[in-house]
Amino acid sequence: MTNFQKYLSYVYRIVVEKTTSKYNSQLIVAIQDGKYVLNAKNANYSFATLHRVFQQALKKIEIESVNTVLVLGCGAGSIPTIIYKELGLNPKMDAVEIDEKVIALGNKYFGLDQYSNMNIIIDDAMSFVKTTNNKYDLILVDLFKGINVPEEFLSQHFFEQLKPLLTEKGELLFNYVAYNHETKQQVNVIEDAMNKSFSNKITTHRLEDINRIFHAKK
To answer: Which residues make beta-bridge pairs with 163?
Structure first.
């Protein structure tokens, strides 16, 4: 990014690369407000709205005491950047992302490959959750197809799969977008499913107007 591009990006968005992948019909890297962002066809993928959501969400927990982290839906690296670069922490992290092209863009434009304590895993999140034996102090779920979370990740079955992956005092932050009547109604369904899966009552945080972060403790 040149200084001229950075300056102009406060006036209008500068697209620097467009591509496609097996999982995304459109991936756009642009310079916006002085920084790179990654967008899918109908939603921000990394380093804009969703970045701000997890900046706020991570203030809801005692992140400094976390030693092991699982990220389901790594994208181009918003969450690792917040934890490693902005907060200056260095937990061991497994970051799962199904789209290899997104990881490549993360490496090229966002420095995703700079974090030595992070293990990037190209896999479907459900498959990884079912097969891993690892335990985590914190699990962060940011699984979207466009602006929607796929149904399989909204089920009580999925939450039951996540619970054994948490350490004794582990915590879960789950991101969801409630942008219309149907998705707003779904918030109650998700809360009910998570309450049945976790012994401690969950907390729902409303962030950036339409985002909901469901916070569960083991």
So the answer is: none
